[in-house]
C-alpha cells in the first residue's frame, strides 16, 4: 500500500481497481479463474470514474460501507435483532479484526451474527448472484448482480438447497436448462446444487455475511 506522501509525490490520488465495489475474491471467481497465479491486475490512480464506481475517499468510508452491508445481512437473517443488541465497541472490534486479519478478534463478534438456532434461526439468506454476460467480449466482460429474498427452509422445516435458490434467482436459466452452460462458483469452489443453502450461509459466507455466488459461462473445452 502506498502512503499519502508517496501518492502526493507521484501525483496520485485515490486508488481504483476498476471494480464496482465487488469483493476481489468474487472478481477472481468471475474473471480470473482461468488465469495463472498470481493474478495480474491493473491499478489506476487517476481519472476516477465517478459515474461507474463507489468512491471511498478514506478508511472511514470503507468501514461505514462494510458495516452497512453487515447490518443489511442481519436484517435478513435476524430482523436486525443481533446487530442492534451490540454496542459500538463490538462494531469496532468486528471491523478491527477484519482490517488487521485477526480471525479470533473478528469471530468473537461475528459468531453472534451467525447464530442459527432456537429463536435466532435465519429468516432469509443474504446472497448476491453475479452472472457473467455471455454476449460481452473477453476484453470487456460484464456481469449483472441479482439479489432477492429467499427463505432457507419450507414451512414444513425441510431445508432448501442451492438448486432451489437458483430456481428463484435465475428462473430464466433453470427453467430452460441453461444452467448446464454455467459453472456455479463461490469462494473458489463449485458446490453441488443439492447443498443446503443454510449450510452454505453458515460456512461459505464472506466477511460481510453475504453469500457471493458467481455464474460463469463454460467454455467449449470444459465439461
TrEMBL record:
InterPro entries: Atg5, ATG5_HBR, Atg5_HR, Atg5_UblA_dom_sf, ATG5_UblB. The keyword Metal-binding does not apply. Residues 60-115 form the Autophagy protein ATG5 alpha-helical bundle region domain. It holds the Pfam family ATG5_HBR. The keyword Protein transport does not apply. Keywords: Autophagy, Cytoplasm, Isopeptide bond, Membrane, Ubl conjugation. Residues 124-215 form the Autophagy protein ATG5 UblB domain. GO terms for cellular component: Atg12-Atg5-Atg16 complex; autophagosome; mitochondria-associated endoplasmic reticulum membrane contact site; phagophore; phagophore assembly site membrane. Its main location: cytoplasm. It is a peripheral membrane protein. It is found in: Cytoplasm; Preautophagosomal structure membrane. GO terms for molecular function: Atg8-family ligase activity. One of its GO terms (biological process) is piecemeal microautophagy of the nucleus. Conjugated with ATG12. Belongs to the ATG5 family. Involved in autophagic vesicle formation. This is Autophagy protein 5. The gene is ORF35926.
Amino acid at each position: 500500500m502506498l502512503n499519502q506522501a508517496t501518492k502526493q509525490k507521484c501525483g496520485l490520488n485515490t486508488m481504483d481497481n476498476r471494480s464496482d465495489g465487488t469483493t476481489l475474491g468474487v472478481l477472481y471467481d468471475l474473471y480470473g479463474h482461468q488465469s495463472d497465479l498470481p493474478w495480474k491486475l491493473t491499478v489506476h490512480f487517476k481519472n476516477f470514474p465517478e459515474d461507474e464506481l463507489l468512491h471511498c475517499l478514506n478508511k472511514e468510508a470503507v468501514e461505514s460501507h462494510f458495516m452497512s452491508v453487515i447490518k443489511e445481512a442481519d436484517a435478513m437473517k435476524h430482523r436486525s435483532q443481533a446487530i442492534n443488541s451490540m454496542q459500538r465497541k463490538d462494531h469496532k472490534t468486528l471491523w478491527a479484526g477484519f482490517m488487521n486479519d485477526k480471525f479470533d478478534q473478528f469471530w468473537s463478534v461475528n459468531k453472534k451474527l451467525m447464530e442459527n438456532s432456537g429463536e435466532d434461526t435465519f429468516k432469509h439468506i443474504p446472497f448476491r448472484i453475479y452472472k457473467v454476460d455471455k454476449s460481452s467480449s473477453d476484453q470487456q466482460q460484464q456481469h449483472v448482480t441479482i439479489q432477492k429474498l429467499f427463505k432457507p427452509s419450507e414451512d414444513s422445516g425441510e431445508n432448501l438447497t442451492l438448486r432451489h435458490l437458483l430456481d428463484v434467482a435465475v428462473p430464466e436459466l433453470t427453467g430452460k436448462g441453461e444452467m448446464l452452460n454455467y459453472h456455479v462458483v463461490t469462494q473458489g469452489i463449485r458446490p453441488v446444487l443439492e447443498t443446503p443453502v443454510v449450510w452454505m450461509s453458515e460456512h461459505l459466507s464472506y466477511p460481510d455475511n453475504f453469500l457471493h455466488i458467481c455464474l460463469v459461462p463454460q467454455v467449449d473445452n470444459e465439461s
